Amino acid sequence: MTVTPERHAALAAYLRKHEGRDQLRFITCGSVDDGKSTLLGRLLYDTKLLFDDQLAALARDSKRHGTQGDALDFALLLDGLEAEREQGITIDVAYRFFGTDKRGFIVADCPGHEQYTRNMATGASTAELAVVLVDARKGVLTQTRRHTWICALFGIRHVVLAVNKMDLVDYDRSRFEAIAAEYTALAYALGIADATCIPLSALCGDNVTARSPRMPWYEGPSLLEHLETVRVERATGGTGFRLPVQWVNRPDHGFRGYAGTVAQGRIAVGAEIVALPGGRRSRIARIIGPDGDLEVAAAGQAVTLTLADELDIARGDVIADAAHPPQVADQFACRLLWMGDAPLLPGRPYWLKIGARTVGAQVTEIRHKIDVNTQAELAAKRLELNEVAQCNLSLDQPVAFEPYAENRTLGGFILIDRQSNATVAGGTLDFALRRAGNVHWQHIDVDKAARATIKGQKPCCLWFTGLSGSGKSTIANLVERRLHALGYHTYILDGDNVRHGLNRDLGFTDEDRVENIRRVAEVAKLMVDAGLIVLVSFISPFRSERRMARALFGEGEFLEVFVDTPLAECERRDPKGLYRRARAGQISNFTGIDSPYEAPEAPEITLRTVEAEAGALAQRLVERVLSFEPAHGREA
Ligand SMILES: Nc1ncnc2c1ncn2[C@@H]1O[C@H](COP(=O)(O)OS(=O)(=O)O)[C@@H](OP(=O)(O)O)[C@H]1O
Ligand SMILES: Nc1ncnc2c1ncn2[C@@H]1O[C@H](COP(=O)(O)OP(=O)(O)O)[C@@H](O)[C@H]1O
Question: Residues marked as binding?
């Protein structure tokens, strides 16, 4: 079953038709084989609200591939979708919708495999309730705990534990009660106020839509009865109006509209607004809905606003009630669910997307990670796939936000890998850290240009990267000697040396190397600011951090010098005997052996040390530097 444009259109039509009707948005989550597909299939079938085309397909597939004889195999209803996922077709979450005369339902179906945590996070961030499945024979598993944790993280306050396959434990009451007790304690520890446990058999239909005579000891509602009647609070935090601007609509010079979905509150024509983070104010001139002008816009509505004044508002800005604006900050305490295959490394730059805004961001500190089985808080220097943690976050620019507990749209974010563009984390902003709030940039009259002029040179950073023993230090040293002899003001920052002082606390794990490069890049930036020609000679093995270093400098100030020497040659030279020791297992995390080196993709200069002598290579570099130095009578 594919999620075709027709089905999306059908969903949109359904939502329109049932606007205003009581609706429950929920997600289903469970481990593989817990029976999630069968349960959902049964629920859809028994409420007789399957689309006809789906039913026909189900009857056909059941005969062909089903495991239930001539009966309908409900699992097949959903497994088509699973199969597409196996083939790597990108479907975040499949939304299904059905209803009874009491309520409409929108279900985000999230597959159970570990690697689909990402999809589950997407589903959870818009759901009001979660149905968590466990197999009665297996009880609460690590996966169950993880899913429940994710539900809690993303603000779901109502959970149903569907204890499935009760038929396979002879509808045993004590088995159910033991699982229910364990799960209720877990949910309570995670702050989930309402955890309802229901014993059922999706396959046999027990307690799914109607109470089962096979479990007379169970006095609670069937799953459907519960879903129809559970009361969920819909309040989304405060009442102040907020609209994250999705796009700026400028068909001609006469019209400038700001389009987006109202994330909170309501606003009327004439009301005073503030555009954040900039802080400029104006009044609402027009509110334009899909069918024409409106007097008022409220949470959930997609509208275009025009303002009385021409403000410089860009995509990603937030238009807010001027009397009750949200906070603006660039440092946060947050909770994070790491979903990247490569680990999270503090200090590494990622993109952060919040509302309609994307900004550069770094996790500055992992305060602790959380063991989903025990809730224990553990020290961590990195986060691996599916780990959750409390972190501090620093953004390159301030953003308007609300704590996640108050508004999911303005408090929820994702992190995106800058190289692959993959979503690597989902998170929630808890509160702003004010540490940077009172630190202002101090203006200094003597600037970089003045310092450079007095030295008669153009400051720059020559960033050498390459394997240990490739020749970075040798060549950098020759370059500096030559420039120095010509009267230039230079400085070499060498990895070995800086690691004796400023970076004495760092080792050679990936996370320590990230921090090592971050610090030395900042130091190099200060030295360039002081007017110097700086030569940085660090292995700097990761593209991501070299890119971060480059971003600190102005146009033409940063030259990446790739000292390109094959590993075998470095090993043959082995000037410090380190390769020999690494091969003997005496040094771990050695670059090129058991720690990666990511060669530059577009360095300004590549020096192949097996093809030319160090002196000749150094001379090439000196000439390159001199080519953009101001002429002042020095001779090369
Ligand atoms: N495990 C491991 N891996 C790589 N290198 C090691 C290691 N242990 C010690 N050394 C010595 O440390 C020097 C590299 O430090 P850097 O600060 O340049 O490394 S990095 O940029 O953080 O990767 C490097 O110096 P160079 O040979 O000049 O590159 C080595 O002498
Ligand atoms: N063309 C060359 N350029 C630089 N170094 C070379 C070259 N050919 C041989 N070498 C030798 O390779 C070794 C490089 O060591 P070093 O400069 O300390 O490398 P790194 O700083 O990259 O670890 C030195 O012993 C140097 O004499």
Answer: 30-37, 109-113, 164-167, 466-473
Residue 85 has a pLDDT of: 37
**What is the enclosing helix (H) or strand (E) of 160?**
strand 158-164
**Measuring CA to CA, which residue among 261, 305, 256 is closest to residue 283?**
305
The residues, any chain, with a CB within 8 Å of residue 458's CB and separated by 6 or more, are 452, 628, 629, 630
| Per annotation, catalytic residue among 282, 394, 540, 544 | 540
Residue entry with tokens 């202002």 = 440
Say what the pLDDT of residue 49 is: 57
Whether residue 460 contacts residue 558, with contact meaning beta carbons closer than 8 Å, is answered with yes
pLDDT at 450: 94
Residue 12 in tokens: 């949109």
Q: Which of 464, 468, 473, 474 to mutate to test the pocket of ligand 2 (most atoms within 8 A of CB)?
A: 474
Instruction: State which of 496, 504, 509 you would mutate to test the pocket of ligand 1, scoring each by most atoms of that ligand within 8 A of its C-beta.
Output: 496
CATH of 449-627, one of 3.30.70.890, 3.40.50.300, 3.40.718.10, 1.10.260.40: 3.40.50.300
Fold of 20-229: Rossmann fold (3.40.50)
Ligand 2 mutation pick, 462, 573, 574, max ligand atoms within 8 A of CB: 573
**Which CATH number does the domain 328-438 belong to among 3.10.20.70, 2.40.30.10, 2.60.40.3710, 3.30.1340.30?**
2.40.30.10
Q: What is the pLDDT of residue 139?
A: 94
Give the binding-site residues of ligand 1, using a 6 Å CB cut-off: 468-469, 473, 495-496, 499, 508, 513, 516-517, 538-541, 576, 578, 587, 589-591, 595
pLDDT at 114: 52
DSSP-based three-state secondary structure for 75: helix
Number of residues that make up the chain: 636
Q: How far is the CA of 604 from the centre of ligand 1 (A)?
A: 23
Count the Cβ atoms, other than its own, within 10 Å of residue 562: 22
Cis-peptide, bond into residue 111, ω within 30° of zero? no
Q: Give Cβ neighbours of residue 240 (< 8 Å, ≥ 6 apart).
A: 264, 265, 320, 321, 323, 324, 325, 326
The answer to whether residue 540 is catalytic is: yes
Neighbours of 8 (CB within 10 A): 11
pLDDT of residue 236: 55
Residues in the chain with pLDDT < 50?
1-5, 7-8, 50-56, 58, 66-92, 632-633, 636
User: CA 31, CA 180: separation in Å to the nearest integer?
Assistant: 17
Cβ–ligand 2 distance for 466 under 6 Å, the answer yes
Contact between 195 and 161 (Cβ < 8 Å): yes
Sign of the torsion formed by the C-alpha atoms of 398, 404, 408 and 413: positive
Pick from 343, 534, 332, 530: nearest CA to 437: 332
> How close is the Cα of 468 to the center of ligand 1, in Å?
6
What is the distance between the alpha carbons of residues 173 and 571, in angstroms, rounded to a whole number?
A: 67
With CA atoms as reference, report the closest residue to 35 among 73, 75, 93.
Answer: 75
* Ligand 2 center to 526 CA (angstroms): 28
Contact between 139 and 132 (Cβ < 8 Å): no
Evaluate: CB of 475 within 6 angstroms of ligand 2: yes
Whose alpha carbon is nearest atom 25 of ligand 2? 575
Atom of ligand 1 nearest to the CA of 541: 23
Q: Residue ranges of the domains in the chain?
A: 20-229, 242-321, 328-438, 449-627
Q: State how far the Cα of 538 lies from the Cα of 517, in Å rounded to an integer.
A: 8
541 lines ligand 2 (CB under 6 A): no
Residue 165 in contact with residue 39, Cβ under 8 Å?
Answer: no
